[in-house]
Amino acid sequence: MGTGTNVERRTVLKAAGVSAVTLGLAATACGGNGGTSADGTVTIRYSWWGAEERAKKINQSIALFEKKYPKIKVKTDFQTYQSFWEKFQTQAAGGNPPDVFQNAVGFLRKYDRRGILLDLNSQVKAGNLSLDHFRAGVTKVGEVDGKQLGVPVGSNTMALVIDKKVFEKAGVDPATGWTWDDYFKALKTIHDKTKVPGDTGYFAIMYLYDLYLRQNGKAFFTEDGLGFDKSDLTEWWTDGYGRVKAGIVTDPKVVAQDQPKSSLSAGHGASEFTWDNFTVRYSAEGSSTYGLAPIPTMNGKDTGQYLASLMLSASAHTAHPKEAAQFIDFMVHDPAVGQIMGYDRGILASTEQYAAFKPTDTVSKEIAQYEDTTAKSGVLGTITPHPSGADTVEAAFLRIGGDLGQGKTKVTDAVKQFFTESEAAFQA
Amino acid sequence: MGTAVTLVKDSVPATRKARSAAPVTKGRRGRRENLAGYLFMSPWIAGFLLLTAGPMVASLYFAFTDYNLFNSPKWVGFDNFTAMFDDPRWRKSVEVTAKYVVIGTPLKLLLALGVALLLAQSRRGQAFYRAAFYAPSLIGASVSIGFVWRSLFSDGAVVDRTQSFLGFHVGGWVGNADWVLYCLVALTVWQFGAPMVIFLAGLKQVPRELYEAAEMDGAGPFRRFWSITLPMISPVLFFNVLLETIHSFQIFGSAYVVSNTYCGPADATLVYTCYLYQKGFKDAQMGFAAAMAWMLLLAVALVTAVLFWSQKKWVHYEEDAR
């Protein structure tokens, strides 16, 4: 019996040991170590959204960075746009956002309000990051209430991407300064002659409606809310739904099935409003030739366009603000990085990178030319304000507007629903 | 070891001996044994407390707060619960889920029972058929099947072509708000393997002599099914109904994947958990989402209670006369 007791004591101790190890492991997995190892090497985390192609280019750029800064290691991960922000929100709420991440104007105020974004001005003063040598005023996009919350990597502007082959076949040639009437007539001509709907669903795209409103002296957002009323949107969506029924805009049933591909690259629509740098995507997804066309206007001149941009931001929670700033500085200024990245995230924002990259492929050339022409025609204005919640509002606009075409809801109900959801988003 | 052998050989006296010896050390030893047991379980207990019980308590608290993940939660009482009934999308999600449960579960169980009846008879290759019918249940929960389903039910794909050939021109179901839910129903019905296996086990338990007696009395196959098989397997049927109903309420994966994460089009596949997910992780209205989760728990508990109550009307447990 004596031995028996001993064995049991040992068993108890063993069991205790096992559970201690388990808990210990769990604790290590959760805790992290701030990313500094014994030899002084600092590890920072960098995440972005985008496709495989962007990841390849970014990884090449990081290799250059790690060569220049051997004491800094960069750990990366990337998702698609939607998943990125879902994951980011959860990480940020847990106090564990990536040290450096891709950002866009619609998210600045939201995450500034939540104390997630590092004001990079302090790092500029410390000499770890330079805001000089950027193309015309583009750093303004990353500024909120005097704080520099993001540094642009590239600038982009809304454009009309067209399936050139279909447009040619229909004999439609979009000219600078064409009006909405011209545009809608063109959609009809295209549908009549080629059986392809002229557009894939313009009326659910927030940034296009913003341009339309700006042409009419309004804008999508004010500093703290929506810049239009229910009757404006009712008119916009009623017309849109009418065009779906007429067949000149792609049936939302088809759009839903084409996802995650765009209906333009799937050949189920002849044009789509989107950011000009996305042309790269269509060329990769689809089999036709894609080009850029001007935004339709009210008065034959003003398009309401402005330069937006993708940015790099740093986390206010980062344990390594200096290294994060050095990384951002390298990624936005280094000419070799510019050569690798090209126009994937828009026209390169810093003059060093802009000068270093000479586009050779047709798509990049066309993007460069488009922004050049747009800038020269003097239509570019100041960017519409983006209040906190702008991202949720954009998603609601896309969802509710897109679903409208299914004919399941009345336009007035859809408009009401959109206003309710927007209100909640601004307050969240 | 020597004692162990005597224990087996001469078990009754040995047990008595052990019992009479027990009181001496029972207290200390028993406690020590319990402690060892708990310590061995402790990884699981820790996991349960940290990953299940803790979050559940937290979510119950959040359900009564306005909480956007970043600010500290603000107590709002029952506001989240009352807000649900004013939210047209919440009502839509309830409608979609109810439709899915009410249509999908009976169809799935009918098919499971039907196939089980066929497979219950001895025939060649029986093991193969069972495995073949069960296979979809094994792979059914995977995301890849969602993708396969999505492409099967698109414009110009197999389902569309078969339908058109038969003269129904619906087009792809995936993009069609009127049809897409049936695409999910088809997916769950296809996974009838798990309840089928349970039905098979139940059918094997029905005593042969009952059928023989009924046949002597001239009962046809339908009569035998209705008066013998069904009452005899009613406990198994009850178990399957309960399990599948609860399971159906929790549908998420297939709706999320087939609709390409939007749970659309036009909210046609906005199942309850999907809306909960959107509210919590997209719109960051965690308080509302937590309230939704507890509402779902209540609803499932209520349905379960009703099923248990209905049991005495139609479930027959064999009296243990022995």
Structure in words:
- The complex is a heterodimer of chains A (about 425) and B (about 325).
- Chain A has 17 helices and eleven strands.
- Chain A has about 425 residues and is of the alpha+beta class.
- In chain A, the strands form three sheets. Chain A has a six-stranded mixed sheet with strand order 2-1-3-10-6-11.
- Chain A is globular, with a radius of gyration of 25 Å.
- The relative contact order of chain A is 0.16.
- The N terminus of chain A is likely disordered.
- Chain B folds into two domains: about 45 residues, no CATH class; about 240 residues, MetI-like fold (Orthogonal Bundle).
- Chain B is built from 14 helices and two strands; from the N terminus they run ααββαααααααααααα.
- Chain B has a two-stranded antiparallel ribbon.
- In chain B, a hairpin with a 7-residue loop joins strand 1 and strand 2.
- Chains A and B meet through helix 1, helix 3, helix 10, helix 16 and helix 17 of A and helix 2 of B.
- Chain A: InterPro entries: Bact_solute-bd_prot1, SBP, TAT_signal.
- Chain A: It comes from Streptomyces hokutonensis.
- Chain A: Pfam families: SBP_bac_1.
Topology (elements, then pairings):
The complex is a heterodimer of chains A (428) and B (322).
Chain A: H1 2-31, E1 42-49, H2 52-68, E2 72-79, H3 81-93, E3 100-104, H4 108-113, H5 121-125, E4 143-144, E5 147-148, E6 151-156, E7 158-163, H6 164-170, H7 180-194, H8 206-215, H9 230-245, H10 252-258, E8 271-275, H11 279-285, E9 290-293, E10 308-314, H12 321-333, H13 335-341, E11 347-348, H14 351-356, H15 362-376, H16 390-404, H17 411-427
Parallel strand pairs in A: 1-2, 1-3
Antiparallel strand pairs in A: 3-10, 4-5, 6-10, 6-11, 7-8, 7-9
Chain B: H1 2-9, H2 11-62, E1 65-66, E2 74-75, H3 79-86, H4 88-120, H5 126-139, H6 143-152, H7 158-165, H8 180-190, H9 193-205, H10 208-216, H11 221-249, H12 253-258, H13 272-282, H14 286-314
Antiparallel strand pairs in B: 1-2
